[in-house]
Every structure is written in C-alpha cells, then in structure tokens.
C-alpha cells in the first residue's frame, strides 16, 4: 500500500467489528488504523504522523463516544470526513456533529453498504 491510499480511523469498542471493518476496508485499498474508544482514537490520531481522511466511529462507547470524538477531530487543522455507526436505536437526524449530519450506518450492516458509504463520503467535496 502507498501513502496515496486514504487513511481510515475505525473506532469501536467491539474488537470483532473493528477487525471486520479493517479487513474489508484494507481489502478494498484503504489504509486502516483502529481504536477502541474516543480517547484512544485521539491518542492514536496524534501518533499517526498524518491526519486520517475518514473517521468511521461508533456513537456509544465507554470513555468518549463518537459524537464527542468527531467534534474534537473536526476542530483539527486537517479534519477528517466523518461517518457515524451504531447498533442502538438512534434517530440519525438527531446526530449532529459540528452543525451537520454525517452519514450514518446502522448495525448490523452489510459490508458492501459500508464500502459504498465510505467511498461516497470520501468522494464528496470538502
């Protein structure tokens, strides 16, 4: 893989979901880093040496949830695109990050749908 491939930061407190998303995204040409909650993701992002192109995060996690994480990461000099995901009954229209509604994936999800949403989100002009 080369640095030209988009870097995706996958954040979920469920290790099986992180592994599954990592494998699927890497198989489709993305570079992937993982974190188990928001605070871990902020630490990991600081260690990366480059800004992730995309933050794919669960909404409800221990320590720091996905909305708070996204808010903090969007304040960075090079903010990532954001996709929220959750297995809980959320009304996606109520999930607002930095004044907008990011794409939302309801768990369980189809990996083809995840790839479609990731690709579309990265293709959307900033």
Helix-strand pattern: EHEHEHEEH
Question: How many β-strands, per DSSP?
Answer: 5
What is CATH's topology name?
Answer: Rossmann fold
CATH superfamily: Response regulator
Principal-axis shape: globular
The mean pLDDT is 90
Domain count, please report it.
Answer: 1
As a percent range, the share of strand residues is: 15-25%
Q: Determine the number of helices (DSSP H or I, runs of at least 4 residues).
A: 4
Write the layout of secondary structure elements.
Layout: E1 7-11, H1 15-27, E2 31-35, H2 38-48, E3 54-58, H3 66-74, E4 81-86, E5 104-106, H4 111-123
Parallel strand pairs: 1-2, 1-3, 3-4, 4-5
Which features does this protein show?
126 residues; alpha/beta; Rossmann fold; five-stranded parallel beta sheet; 4 helices; 19% strand; globular
Written description of the protein model:
The structure is a single chain. With 126 residues, the protein is an alpha/beta fold. The protein has one domain: Response regulator (Rossmann fold). It has four helices and five strands; from the N terminus they run E-H-E-H-E-H-E-E-H. It has helices at 15-27, 38-48, 66-74, 111-123, and strands at residues 7-11, 31-35, 54-58, 81-86, 104-106. The protein has a five-stranded parallel sheet with strand order 2-1-3-4-5, sandwiched between helices. Strand 3, helix 3 and strand 4 form a beta-alpha-beta unit. Helix 2 runs parallel beside helix 3. The radius of gyration is 13 Å and the shape is globular. The relative contact order is 0.17. The model has no long low-confidence stretch (mean pLDDT 90).
């Amino acid at each position: 893989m080369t640095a030209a491939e988009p870097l995706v930061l996958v954040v979920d407190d469920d290790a099986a979901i992180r592994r599954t998303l990592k494998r699927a995204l890497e198989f489709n040409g993305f570079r992937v880093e993982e974190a188990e909650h928001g605070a871990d993701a902020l630490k990991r992002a600081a260690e990366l040496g480059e800004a992730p192109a995309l933050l794919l995060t669960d909404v409800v996690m221990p320590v720091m949830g996905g909305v708070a994480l996204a808010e903090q990461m969007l304040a960075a000099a090079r903010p990532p695109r954001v996709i929220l995901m959750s297995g809980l009954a959320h009304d996606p229209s109520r999930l607002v990050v930095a004044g907008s509604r990011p794409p939302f994936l309801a768990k369980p999800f189809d990996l083809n749908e995840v790839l479609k949403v990731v690709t579309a989100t990265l293709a959307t002009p900033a």
